[in-house]
Write a structure and sequence with these properties.
seven-stranded mixed sheet, Rossmann fold, two-stranded antiparallel sheet, 20% strand, 37% helix, alpha/beta
Amino acid sequence: MSARHTSAAKAYTARVDAVLAQRTRLRGPGPAGEVFAGLPPGHPLLATDPLRPLDATLEAIARYVQPDDVIVDVGGGGGRTGLPLARRCREVINVDPSSSMLAGFAANARQADITNIRSIHGDWLEVDAPRGTLALVNHVMYLTREIVPFIKKVEAAASRRVLVTVGSPPPPSRNRLVFQVCYDESSEMVPGHIELVNVLWELGIEPDIMMLPVVKGGIEPAASREDAVKLALGQLRGHQWAFWPLDPALEQAARQRVEAQFDALFEATDAGYLPRWTVPAREVLITWETGT
């Protein structure tokens, strides 16, 4: 690693390490094996409709896609982004470390009669990377310690262009008020688009950066106080992307804190109990030509 990008890369890795250290201290180490193995087939992380109308993010990405493109979808999961784009290109190759995600990817493709896809099971930094014209990385790098090798391998996989999406604020850090209430300490923030762009600049990459419209939807109001408490606990469980179940003792302590500070977390409305911790979220599209 040259001196030109040491500072930004070290800052990125330090941010990841701070999150992982805090997560491990408070939640314990992640379970052995695959985190997503216990998800039911219809879970939102696994199931998606490739035939749905394109949202603002997909429309922005699709403008770069040509009919003869081969898209390498790094960490493509169940195909939420890759499968709709498969209908607009020659092939999508999904490289993902989760066999459960790849099973969802295959099922979603079958349901939509999409056949120009294939998958590679493995961690991006460990697999023999395929070669395409476009490389696509959607919400993948928040906890990537080896950010420079990751970016270099992504760039090498794309002969024409790299497209990266990052949330603002990043999804793993969107429930900080719930975290603060339940643990009585501030949540460490995962690196976002600013930290990523700093690394790219110091690598000599000058990307185009597009702030996309505010994402519609979000968390719906809870119908009852008990539903609201369960909602807060569910958001705590996924914060910092610790998707495994809460330890029973931790869940009980967190429930007591949520109930004690309920009014700090929820606003009572005619529609139900509205979370106070949600903020307008946007996606950032970061893209550059590779010319390789």
